[in-house]
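hi! just following up on the protien thing from before. the input was this:
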Amino acid sequence: MRLRVSLATMALSLVACTQPQPGAAQPARGDGRQGGVVDAAEQPAPAAAVSAPQAAANLAPESATTAPTLARLRPAAMAGSWYPAERDEVVAELSRMLRAASNAPAVSGPPLALVVPHAGWRFSGPVAAAAYRNLHRGDFRRVVVIAPSHRSAFGGFSVADVEAYQTPLGNVKLCGAAHSLRDGQLVRSVPGAHRQEHSIELQLPFLQHTLGSFCLVPILAGQTDPQMEQGLAAKLAELHDGQTLFVCSSDFIHYGPGFGYTPFGPSVREARPRILKLQQRAIGLLERQDAAGFRRLVDSTHATICGRRALSVLLELLSRIAPKARSKLLAHTASSDRPDARGDDGVWYVALAYVPSATAGK
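and the predicted 3d structure came back as:
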Protein backbone atom coordinates (compact mmCIF):
# COMPACT_ATOMS: atom_id res chain seq x y z
CA MET A 1 0.00 0.00 0.00
CA ARG A 2 1.48 3.33 -1.06
CA LEU A 3 1.74 6.10 1.57
CA ARG A 4 0.39 9.35 0.14
CA VAL A 5 0.95 11.81 2.97
CA SER A 6 3.44 14.68 2.71
CA LEU A 7 5.89 15.45 5.50
CA ALA A 8 4.48 18.97 5.76
CA THR A 9 0.98 17.61 6.30
CA MET A 10 2.24 15.19 8.94
CA ALA A 11 4.04 17.92 10.85
CA LEU A 12 1.03 20.24 10.78
CA SER A 13 -1.21 17.45 12.03
CA LEU A 14 1.08 16.74 14.97
CA VAL A 15 1.27 20.39 15.96
CA ALA A 16 -2.47 20.96 15.62
CA CYS A 17 -3.19 18.01 17.89
CA THR A 18 -1.56 19.10 21.11
CA GLN A 19 1.32 21.52 20.74
CA PRO A 20 0.92 24.88 22.54
CA GLN A 21 1.37 27.86 20.24
CA PRO A 22 4.48 30.07 20.39
CA GLY A 23 4.28 32.50 23.25
CA ALA A 24 1.60 30.56 25.09
CA ALA A 25 2.13 29.43 28.65
CA GLN A 26 3.60 25.94 28.66
CA PRO A 27 1.40 23.32 30.34
CA ALA A 28 2.30 21.41 33.45
CA ARG A 29 4.28 18.23 32.89
CA GLY A 30 2.16 15.18 32.26
CA ASP A 31 -1.17 16.85 31.56
CA GLY A 32 -1.39 15.35 28.11
CA ARG A 33 -0.81 18.67 26.38
CA GLN A 34 2.63 18.02 24.98
CA GLY A 35 2.79 17.17 21.30
CA GLY A 36 4.95 17.63 18.25
CA VAL A 37 8.33 18.81 19.56
CA VAL A 38 8.34 18.69 23.35
CA ASP A 39 10.00 21.50 25.26
CA ALA A 40 13.36 20.34 26.63
CA ALA A 41 12.40 21.38 30.15
CA GLU A 42 9.55 18.87 30.07
CA GLN A 43 11.63 15.88 29.02
CA PRO A 44 11.80 13.32 31.85
CA ALA A 45 15.17 12.04 32.95
CA PRO A 46 16.31 8.77 31.34
CA ALA A 47 15.00 5.73 33.19
CA ALA A 48 17.43 3.62 35.16
CA ALA A 49 18.59 0.30 33.79
CA VAL A 50 16.82 -2.78 35.10
CA SER A 51 18.23 -6.01 36.39
CA ALA A 52 17.96 -9.33 34.57
CA PRO A 53 15.35 -10.69 37.03
CA GLN A 54 13.21 -7.61 36.45
CA ALA A 55 13.62 -8.03 32.70
CA ALA A 56 12.20 -11.54 32.91
CA ALA A 57 9.31 -10.61 35.17
CA ASN A 58 6.62 -10.46 32.49
CA LEU A 59 7.39 -13.08 29.87
CA ALA A 60 4.90 -13.14 27.02
CA PRO A 61 3.18 -16.36 26.00
CA GLU A 62 4.32 -15.97 22.38
CA SER A 63 7.88 -14.84 23.16
CA ALA A 64 11.13 -16.57 23.94
CA THR A 65 11.92 -17.09 27.60
CA THR A 66 15.23 -15.20 27.52
CA ALA A 67 15.31 -11.73 29.04
CA PRO A 68 15.66 -8.84 26.56
CA THR A 69 19.01 -7.13 26.33
CA LEU A 70 19.14 -3.48 27.34
CA ALA A 71 19.71 -2.54 23.70
CA ARG A 72 16.39 -4.17 22.81
CA LEU A 73 14.45 -2.73 25.76
CA ARG A 74 12.33 0.41 25.47
CA PRO A 75 12.98 2.24 28.78
CA ALA A 76 10.25 3.69 30.97
CA ALA A 77 10.63 7.27 29.76
CA MET A 78 7.73 8.80 31.73
CA ALA A 79 8.26 7.11 35.10
CA GLY A 80 9.10 9.71 37.72
CA SER A 81 7.33 12.53 35.90
CA TRP A 82 3.96 11.48 34.49
CA TYR A 83 3.55 8.66 37.01
CA PRO A 84 5.66 7.31 39.91
CA ALA A 85 9.05 5.74 39.31
CA GLU A 86 9.17 3.37 42.28
CA ARG A 87 7.35 0.04 42.15
CA ASP A 88 5.70 0.38 45.57
CA GLU A 89 4.48 3.88 44.76
CA VAL A 90 3.06 2.73 41.42
CA VAL A 91 1.20 -0.16 43.05
CA ALA A 92 -0.16 2.10 45.78
CA GLU A 93 -1.34 4.75 43.32
CA LEU A 94 -2.94 2.20 41.00
CA SER A 95 -4.72 0.56 43.93
CA ARG A 96 -5.97 3.93 45.15
CA MET A 97 -7.30 4.97 41.72
CA LEU A 98 -8.98 1.62 41.10
CA ARG A 99 -10.65 1.74 44.52
CA ALA A 100 -11.86 5.27 43.84
CA ALA A 101 -13.34 4.09 40.53
CA SER A 102 -15.33 1.30 42.18
CA ASN A 103 -18.59 3.22 41.77
CA ALA A 104 -18.06 3.92 38.07
CA PRO A 105 -20.24 2.06 35.55
CA ALA A 106 -18.97 -1.44 34.80
CA VAL A 107 -19.45 -4.27 32.33
CA SER A 108 -20.33 -7.79 33.44
CA GLY A 109 -17.70 -9.65 31.43
CA PRO A 110 -14.32 -9.07 29.82
CA PRO A 111 -14.55 -6.22 27.28
CA LEU A 112 -13.61 -6.57 23.64
CA ALA A 113 -11.98 -3.16 23.60
CA LEU A 114 -11.35 -0.08 25.74
CA VAL A 115 -10.88 3.60 24.98
CA VAL A 116 -8.60 5.10 27.64
CA PRO A 117 -6.86 8.49 28.11
CA HIS A 118 -3.08 8.87 28.35
CA ALA A 119 -2.28 12.08 30.22
CA GLY A 120 -0.27 12.13 33.42
CA TRP A 121 -1.98 10.09 36.12
CA ARG A 122 -2.87 13.10 38.27
CA PHE A 123 -4.94 14.41 35.36
CA SER A 124 -6.45 11.38 33.64
CA GLY A 125 -5.58 8.45 35.93
CA PRO A 126 -9.03 8.33 37.58
CA VAL A 127 -10.71 8.12 34.17
CA ALA A 128 -8.33 5.39 33.04
CA ALA A 129 -9.05 3.51 36.26
CA ALA A 130 -12.76 3.50 35.41
CA ALA A 131 -11.87 1.46 32.32
CA TYR A 132 -9.22 -0.82 33.80
CA ARG A 133 -11.32 -1.80 36.82
CA ASN A 134 -13.19 -4.06 34.37
CA LEU A 135 -10.12 -6.25 33.84
CA HIS A 136 -9.03 -9.20 35.97
CA ARG A 137 -6.02 -11.46 36.07
CA GLY A 138 -6.09 -14.06 33.34
CA ASP A 139 -8.74 -12.30 31.22
CA PHE A 140 -6.35 -11.81 28.29
CA ARG A 141 -3.00 -13.20 27.12
CA ARG A 142 -2.38 -10.49 24.54
CA VAL A 143 -3.04 -6.73 24.48
CA VAL A 144 -2.98 -4.55 21.37
CA VAL A 145 -2.52 -0.84 22.17
CA ILE A 146 -3.19 1.60 19.33
CA ALA A 147 -2.08 5.12 20.17
CA PRO A 148 -1.22 8.44 18.50
CA SER A 149 2.31 9.64 17.86
CA HIS A 150 2.81 13.03 19.53
CA ARG A 151 6.50 13.55 18.82
CA SER A 152 7.29 12.03 15.43
CA ALA A 153 5.75 12.76 12.05
CA PHE A 154 5.41 9.78 9.72
CA GLY A 155 2.91 8.13 7.43
CA GLY A 156 1.12 4.94 8.39
CA PHE A 157 1.79 3.02 11.58
CA SER A 158 4.84 2.08 13.63
CA VAL A 159 5.64 -0.87 15.89
CA ALA A 160 8.77 -0.41 18.01
CA ASP A 161 11.72 -2.62 17.05
CA VAL A 162 12.28 -3.79 20.62
CA GLU A 163 11.75 -6.96 22.62
CA ALA A 164 10.01 -5.38 25.60
CA TYR A 165 8.69 -2.19 27.19
CA GLN A 166 10.02 -1.35 30.65
CA THR A 167 7.87 -0.06 33.51
CA PRO A 168 8.50 0.12 37.27
CA LEU A 169 6.42 -3.08 37.56
CA GLY A 170 8.72 -5.06 35.27
CA ASN A 171 8.99 -5.58 31.55
CA VAL A 172 6.17 -6.27 29.12
CA LYS A 173 7.41 -8.42 26.27
CA LEU A 174 6.20 -7.92 22.73
CA CYS A 175 4.13 -10.67 21.15
CA GLY A 176 5.30 -12.45 18.06
CA ALA A 177 2.35 -10.80 16.30
CA ALA A 178 3.86 -7.37 16.96
CA HIS A 179 6.81 -8.17 14.75
CA SER A 180 4.80 -10.00 12.09
CA LEU A 181 2.51 -6.97 11.63
CA ARG A 182 5.36 -4.99 10.10
CA ASP A 183 5.19 -5.16 6.32
CA GLY A 184 7.56 -2.29 5.51
CA GLN A 185 4.78 -0.14 4.05
CA LEU A 186 1.61 0.24 6.10
CA VAL A 187 3.29 -0.84 9.34
CA ARG A 188 6.98 -0.11 9.90
CA SER A 189 9.34 0.57 12.75
CA VAL A 190 9.96 4.33 12.68
CA PRO A 191 13.32 5.11 14.35
CA GLY A 192 12.89 7.20 17.48
CA ALA A 193 9.10 7.43 17.31
CA HIS A 194 8.55 5.32 20.44
CA ARG A 195 11.47 6.52 22.56
CA GLN A 196 9.75 9.39 24.39
CA GLU A 197 6.15 8.68 23.40
CA HIS A 198 3.82 8.56 26.40
CA SER A 199 0.58 7.35 24.83
CA ILE A 200 1.45 3.63 25.06
CA GLU A 201 3.61 3.68 28.18
CA LEU A 202 0.95 5.28 30.39
CA GLN A 203 -1.35 2.29 29.80
CA LEU A 204 1.10 -0.44 30.72
CA PRO A 205 1.21 -0.27 34.54
CA PHE A 206 -2.60 -0.36 34.62
CA LEU A 207 -2.55 -3.45 32.41
CA GLN A 208 0.20 -5.13 34.44
CA HIS A 209 -1.62 -4.46 37.70
CA THR A 210 -5.00 -5.75 36.50
CA LEU A 211 -4.11 -8.54 34.07
CA GLY A 212 -0.83 -9.87 35.41
CA SER A 213 1.10 -11.56 32.60
CA PHE A 214 0.40 -10.69 28.97
CA CYS A 215 2.27 -9.87 25.79
CA LEU A 216 2.03 -6.55 23.96
CA VAL A 217 1.40 -5.32 20.43
CA PRO A 218 2.25 -1.56 20.64
CA ILE A 219 1.16 0.44 17.59
CA LEU A 220 1.66 4.16 17.03
CA ALA A 221 -0.54 5.89 14.45
CA GLY A 222 1.04 8.57 12.31
CA GLN A 223 -0.67 10.44 9.49
CA THR A 224 -3.19 8.10 7.87
CA ASP A 225 -6.19 8.03 5.58
CA PRO A 226 -9.29 5.81 5.75
CA GLN A 227 -7.74 3.20 3.46
CA MET A 228 -4.76 2.84 5.78
CA GLU A 229 -6.97 2.64 8.85
CA GLN A 230 -9.07 -0.05 7.20
CA GLY A 231 -5.91 -1.89 6.18
CA LEU A 232 -4.60 -2.02 9.76
CA ALA A 233 -8.04 -3.01 11.06
CA ALA A 234 -8.05 -5.98 8.68
CA LYS A 235 -4.65 -7.07 10.00
CA LEU A 236 -5.75 -6.71 13.62
CA ALA A 237 -8.96 -8.62 12.99
CA GLU A 238 -6.80 -11.69 12.43
CA LEU A 239 -5.60 -11.39 16.05
CA HIS A 240 -9.11 -11.55 17.48
CA ASP A 241 -9.18 -14.87 19.33
CA GLY A 242 -11.11 -14.24 22.55
CA GLN A 243 -7.85 -13.79 24.47
CA THR A 244 -6.79 -10.49 22.91
CA LEU A 245 -7.81 -7.10 24.32
CA PHE A 246 -7.76 -4.04 22.06
CA VAL A 247 -6.97 -0.73 23.79
CA CYS A 248 -7.26 2.63 22.04
CA SER A 249 -5.22 5.29 23.82
CA SER A 250 -6.62 8.77 23.26
CA ASP A 251 -7.31 12.02 25.03
CA PHE A 252 -10.21 14.00 23.65
CA ILE A 253 -10.75 17.68 22.87
CA HIS A 254 -7.80 19.96 23.70
CA TYR A 255 -9.23 23.45 24.05
CA GLY A 256 -7.73 26.89 24.58
CA PRO A 257 -5.14 29.35 23.25
CA GLY A 258 -2.33 27.01 24.25
CA PHE A 259 -3.64 24.46 21.75
CA GLY A 260 -4.58 26.92 19.02
CA TYR A 261 -8.19 25.70 19.20
CA THR A 262 -10.71 28.32 20.34
CA PRO A 263 -13.77 28.13 18.03
CA PHE A 264 -16.10 28.98 20.93
CA GLY A 265 -14.02 31.80 22.43
CA PRO A 266 -10.69 32.02 24.27
CA SER A 267 -11.84 30.82 27.70
CA VAL A 268 -12.31 27.09 28.25
CA ARG A 269 -14.70 27.80 31.11
CA GLU A 270 -16.97 30.12 29.13
CA ALA A 271 -16.89 27.75 26.17
CA ARG A 272 -17.55 24.65 28.27
CA PRO A 273 -21.21 24.08 27.28
CA ARG A 274 -20.36 24.19 23.57
CA ILE A 275 -17.25 22.04 24.03
CA LEU A 276 -19.37 19.45 25.83
CA LYS A 277 -21.90 19.47 23.00
CA LEU A 278 -19.13 18.80 20.47
CA GLN A 279 -17.62 16.18 22.73
CA GLN A 280 -20.95 14.39 23.08
CA ARG A 281 -21.34 14.31 19.31
CA ALA A 282 -17.95 12.61 19.04
CA ILE A 283 -18.74 10.14 21.83
CA GLY A 284 -22.09 9.34 20.24
CA LEU A 285 -20.40 8.41 16.95
CA LEU A 286 -17.95 6.21 18.82
CA GLU A 287 -20.80 4.54 20.68
CA ARG A 288 -22.56 3.86 17.37
CA GLN A 289 -19.29 2.62 15.84
CA ASP A 290 -19.69 5.06 12.96
CA ALA A 291 -16.15 5.37 11.58
CA ALA A 292 -17.10 7.48 8.56
CA GLY A 293 -19.27 9.80 10.66
CA PHE A 294 -16.51 10.20 13.26
CA ARG A 295 -14.00 11.16 10.55
CA ARG A 296 -16.44 13.68 9.06
CA LEU A 297 -17.06 15.29 12.44
CA VAL A 298 -13.37 15.67 13.23
CA ASP A 299 -12.59 16.94 9.73
CA SER A 300 -15.44 19.47 9.71
CA THR A 301 -14.92 20.82 13.24
CA HIS A 302 -11.12 20.34 13.44
CA ALA A 303 -11.78 18.85 16.87
CA THR A 304 -8.41 18.32 18.56
CA ILE A 305 -8.82 14.66 19.49
CA CYS A 306 -5.25 13.45 19.43
CA GLY A 307 -6.13 9.78 18.97
CA ARG A 308 -8.54 10.36 16.11
CA ARG A 309 -6.70 7.97 13.78
CA ALA A 310 -6.31 5.30 16.43
CA LEU A 311 -10.02 5.65 17.20
CA SER A 312 -10.85 5.28 13.50
CA VAL A 313 -8.83 2.06 13.40
CA LEU A 314 -10.72 0.77 16.43
CA LEU A 315 -14.10 1.51 14.85
CA GLU A 316 -13.06 -0.19 11.62
CA LEU A 317 -11.82 -3.17 13.64
CA LEU A 318 -15.05 -3.51 15.61
CA SER A 319 -17.07 -3.51 12.39
CA ARG A 320 -15.08 -6.60 11.41
CA ILE A 321 -14.91 -8.58 14.64
CA ALA A 322 -18.05 -7.50 16.51
CA PRO A 323 -20.43 -5.39 14.41
CA LYS A 324 -23.15 -5.74 17.06
CA ALA A 325 -20.90 -4.93 20.01
CA ARG A 326 -22.39 -2.67 22.67
CA SER A 327 -20.59 0.35 24.04
CA LYS A 328 -20.66 1.73 27.57
CA LEU A 329 -19.47 5.17 28.66
CA LEU A 330 -17.51 4.66 31.87
CA ALA A 331 -16.14 8.12 32.72
CA HIS A 332 -15.90 11.60 31.25
CA THR A 333 -14.14 14.64 32.71
CA ALA A 334 -11.73 17.48 31.91
CA SER A 335 -8.49 18.84 33.32
CA SER A 336 -10.19 22.25 33.63
CA ASP A 337 -12.70 20.72 36.08
CA ARG A 338 -9.96 20.13 38.64
CA PRO A 339 -10.08 22.43 41.71
CA ASP A 340 -6.48 23.51 41.07
CA ALA A 341 -7.03 24.23 37.35
CA ARG A 342 -5.70 27.57 36.14
CA GLY A 343 -5.60 29.38 32.82
CA ASP A 344 -7.77 29.13 29.75
CA ASP A 345 -6.79 25.67 28.48
CA GLY A 346 -8.31 22.27 29.15
CA VAL A 347 -8.18 18.66 27.96
CA TRP A 348 -11.15 16.27 28.04
CA TYR A 349 -10.76 12.61 29.02
CA VAL A 350 -13.12 9.75 28.18
CA ALA A 351 -13.26 6.04 29.06
CA LEU A 352 -15.36 3.69 26.95
CA ALA A 353 -15.80 -0.08 26.88
CA TYR A 354 -17.04 -2.24 24.02
CA VAL A 355 -18.56 -5.60 24.94
CA PRO A 356 -20.16 -8.46 23.00
CA SER A 357 -23.81 -7.84 22.24
CA ALA A 358 -24.90 -10.55 24.67
CA THR A 359 -23.03 -8.93 27.58
CA ALA A 360 -25.16 -6.59 29.69
CA GLY A 361 -23.72 -3.77 31.73
CA LYS A 362 -24.21 -3.66 35.47
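Residues 1-66 have pLDDT under 50 and may be disordered.
The first helix runs from residue 7 to 18.
cheers
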